[in-house]
Design a protein that fits this description.
Blueprint (H helix, E strand, L loop, with lengths): L4 E7 L2 E7 L4 H8 L6 E4 L2 E3 L10 E5 L7
Parallel strand pairs: 1-5
Antiparallel strand pairs: 1-2, 3-4, 3-5
Amino acid sequence: MADSKTINLLSNGEFTSRDVSAGTVGELRNELDIPSTANVNVGGTVRQNDFDIEDGAYIAYTSNNKVGG
């Protein structure tokens, strides 16, 4: 990856380092197959698709497709 960066992605309750080539939240959605209906948090704040991702960013995403109690 020419312009890769390392992000910290929340997975199974822990942040793990991951190399990505995405420069924005929208590009990250495509690279990691994050659903368009999911909220993407960068540094604890929900961000839109045009938000720039910096090296070392802490990122989590949540989908609201849960059913039942």
